[in-house]
Amino acid sequence: MDGRFEEAEELRRQLRQAKRDRQEAEERAERAERHIEQEKVQRQKAREEAKEAKRVAEKERTQRQDAEPDIVGNRNACQEHLYDKFSAETNKALTSKGGLTDPAHKWCPTKLLPWSDFLDLQKTVLGEIYAAFGDERTFPAAKEVPAVAKVVRRRVANEADVLLVQYIAVQHPVSVIIEEVAARPSIKAELGISSRVVFENQITAISELADGADGRRDGEIAEDGQGSEDKDNEDDDEKNNEAMAPKIGPSCARARPDQVAVYWPDLKDPDNLEGRAIAFVVEYKAPHKLTVAHLRLGLREMDIRTEVVVPITSNPEHFQYDSERLVAAAVTQTYHYMIENGLEYSYLSTGEAFVFLKIDWSNPGNLFFHLAEPRAEVAAHGANGRHCTAVSQVLAFALLALRTGQKSQTIRNNATRDLKTWAVDYDLMIQTIAEEREGKSVTPSVYTPSPKTYTNVDRSPYVFLKNGRAALPKTCRPGADNCGRKRTPDGDDDDVTTDGSTNGPTIGTQTPVRSHGHGRGQKSGTAPARSSHGPPARSQSSPYCTQQCLLGLVCGFPLDSRCPNAAFHRRHGSSDSRHHPVDHKTWQRRLEEQLDQSLDDGIKPLWKQGARGVLFRVTLLEYGYTFVAKGTTPEAVEYLRREAKMYGRLRTLQGSGIPVFLGAVDLKWPYRYDIGVRLVHMLFLSWGGESILDRKEALGLDQAALDRQLLPLVQNMHRLGVIHMDVRGPNILWCEETGKIMLVDFERAITVASRRRNPHPLRAQAVQRFMQEDLGYAQIVLRT
């Protein structure tokens, strides 16, 4: 009995315990649910608070950005929304193939040296532009920049991708700022620049000719109706033009930079080429071919020829040596363009990094470099990172370059006398590197230094005073925390860094920045170094000689007293005022001697050009004869020689229907006219006037009167055995002196051997067809 009672009691106790356990479990579950719900509410609240904080922060950031001068806000937005979106393609199957570049037969720098005062110059230029604009809001709103960000989010796989991204994220914003500068005379004067800047890929039509002549064969209509040379009709004077072509150094054919920064003085007429000049060139390299690792390691002080082109070390460290070879090849190509075009500044970019370059023209074998990595620099410099953006650095560089003109032809030619070329086949070098490294594990991170951020340099711009007050934007003015400046006891801003050292220029009146110690120099044994700004005043302003003056010079006739330069001719000639001071043969010799001595004095580009030639105003300085020259490249010399022959055939029309032909010469030194364009041959003519298309309306000429002049002129040419083959508006000039039409450009003309009594039927048909085409064009060209 007792046993059963105890057992029942134990069961009741277990039931009570189970009930308590169940209740406690339920309570714990309820508490857990309440806790979970509380945590959920708290997380939701945190998310809402974070969202609100982000909204407030974005609003404050936008307000700060809108409060900043757009010159600051715009650059920051370009960096954040455009440049920072840049990314290189890492999938080898999607990247471009082939060599990085081919430095073969390019001018090679002797020494590669660090550009030690680059950042100092950069801070000065940025300080000047801040001072010039102050708080003016003249640039596109920064908030508009993200609209184009999606364009640059593609991965960069080749040089074309780099060009696209750089144009959108860097070059266009820089162009906008500089155009605003150029549109304001006061600011333009303060910053020491003269015009806007544009980034072009192709500058002149004749640049295409440097890639090879068009292969068209012109000449006499032969018996079978095809073109051939009329060897029997060459005059003795024309044979004198068959001199050997000049030695012009390394070939420029098919060698031109990816972009050219050109400044144009005429803001209203972009088609006006007069005064156009090149400020600097830009080369792009795909980031998978020339990596930041290569740049950080390969850019160092070195003698390129002894350490890279012809290395002394027999077994160099692989990755180090590879980097040096790749970097040297890249900068050599840019350096070549700088030498050819007389440029002090240029840069190359992989998109991720920029290599800013400068030539010391007092010792042109020295090439100075500065490596910039904007993304890393912006992150490393905190509030001052805004001055390290890609737009800021390229803007400062562009303004620096715009203050320097292209060096003269004489200075460039003198520089090339002592320079050597790189004759290595770069594609073979790339292949050799790949073969040598095949199967070997090379980790760039083991060898590569950290990003170049220059954290030891205060990147805030120098402060300039304008109208007696600090003129920097509010965010960079004296006393601002992000300026990294100290104030002197008298309240003036001094260039004192946070560590107490002083660097940079004295604060005060803005003056154009110039680097020290890199002026022009002259080597012994070279031609006199002429001014890089062009010939003396007389050669720039002398009016053209008259047709009769130059015709008299060629034919031995008396001096034309109506020539505006007649007094100058007499003053430097004999006492006989009725005759020319020299005969034509002596005149030609003196002109050739002048051109041998200098391609700067007495010669000025007219920025008028065709497919095969460009025009110059030329003055024979000794006697004051002023006329035009038509220069051309090696690929088109044969066409100008043919044109000279046509003038010989048309001798009786010279001075009335066509210009007077004065001779031709092969230049001793090439005239470096444009990127990749070397002029080696010049043909000299009297000035024929402006295009009839430009003068027709102003002159109020009657159409019938024009027809009465042009059609007989073309017919007379045909009777003299020349078919023009290019009768069109640009080749028809109006000569103010004679009041008549003149026809020019005979480089496509063909000759007719009229002395043959029994021409082949095919030849006769061809002659008639071409003559009819000439007359047909002559009838319609002035009506279009």
Explain this structure to me?
By secondary structure, the chain is an alpha+beta fold. It folds into 3 domains: about 70-90 and about 100-200 and about 255-485, no CATH class; about 535-685, 2-Layer Sandwich (Phosphorylase Kinase, domain 1), CATH 3.30.200.20; about 690-780, Transferase(Phosphotransferase), domain 1. Strands 3-6-7-9-10-11-2-8 form an 8-stranded mixed beta sheet, sandwiched between helices. Strands 15-16-17-19-18 form a 5-stranded antiparallel beta sheet, with helices on both faces. Strands 20-22-23 form a 3-stranded antiparallel beta sheet. Strand 22 (about 730-735) and strand 23 (about 740-745) form a beta hairpin. Helix 2 runs antiparallel to helix 4 (about 160-180). The N and C termini lie far apart (about 135 Å). One of its GO terms (molecular function) is ATP binding. InterPro entries: Kinase-like_dom_sf, Meiotic_Drive_Suppr_Kinase, Prot_kinase_dom.
Helix content: 25-40%
Number of helices: 23
Which consecutive residue ranges, at least 5 long each, have pLDDT under 50?
Answer: 64-69, 77-83, 85-100, 141-148, 212-218, 220-247, 468-539
Number of domains in the coordinates? 3
Q: Determine the structural class based on helices, strands and strand pairing.
A: alpha+beta
Question: Using DSSP, what is the number of strands?
Answer: 24
- Summarize model confidence as the mean pLDDT: 74
**Biggest β-sheet strands, sense, barrel:** 8 strands, mixed
Identify the strand order in the major beta sheet.
3-6-7-9-10-11-2-8
The general outline is elongated
Strand content: 5-15%
Head-to-tail CA distance between termini = 135 Å
Rg measurement, Å: 36 Å
Biased composition (Basic and acidic residues): 1-67
GO molecular function, one term: ATP binding
Region (Disordered): 1-69, 214-250, 475-542
Domain Protein kinase: 601-784
